[in-house]
Write a structure and sequence with these properties.
Blueprint lengths: L2 H20 L27 H8 L15 H18 L18 E2 L5 E5 L4 H6 L6 H12 L8 E4 L13 H18 L3 E5 H9 L5 H4 L4 E3 L2 E6 L2 H6 L4 H16 L1
Helix pairs in contact: 1-3, 3-6
This protein binds uracil.
The site of uracil (URA) has 12 residues, from helix 5.
Amino acid sequence: MNEAELRRLAESIRGTVAGLRRAGLREILRAEPRPAAPPAHQPGKPGRSQAALAAETEHPSAERFSTETGTSPVEQEEKAERLLAVRNELGDCRRCRLHETRTHLVFGEGDPAARLVFVGEGPGADEDRQGRPFVGRAGRLLDKMIQSIGLERGQVYICNVVKCRPPGNRTPAPEEIEPCSPFLTKQLEVIQPKVICTLGACATQTLLQTRKFISELRSGVRLWRGIPVVPTYHPAYLLRNPAKKADVWKDLLRVLQILEG
Ligand code: URA
């Protein structure tokens, strides 16, 4: 496993643990496999996760925890594995010209079973340097937005429409969005959040397949494959237009209502 894969794995474990803590995790049980436990993977048979094996072999008195998502730790780990498979499929992506200028591909991070996913436009300079989404100034504002609805960053999932930085932070071009957006679709299909919050016009228009303005779209809740989408302004836009914070707060309340509904 290389450094980037290890970092992604660590991030997914952090998300998993955050989910378990929310569910009241008091201790992590180390399952002792029984001597006759079957191997994790037999040639010709589909591989089974270590967590699935551990669940089968754990001590009978072991307590089981489920997260507030209603997702069991085994399901949560399966989602993490499926997300890793999507990441591996993306590989050292050269599907569009953005690969020529990127430092790191920024896949996304957070709880693989998150009930809330934020979708941004594309990595900026800080994200390109670190290989993580929303870690610059706009990211710090996004963190505050997340906290304002009583959540922590590790409890949600954060990703972008395009995974590589458009030079000069320009809006991604259609020929860059087109090969990348299937991976966003796959991420959302794995996570199956209760609500998606799109940040800005690019994410909103890409997900909802529309050219309408964000000011028009943010007044209501739309659906993406049956999942409610709450469009709001991009945090970078909010930094330039702080007067729009009241509107974003209304949008976040709508997100909260859906989460609690
Ligand atoms: N802006 C985005 O749209 N995404 C990031 O990850 C950072 C800034």
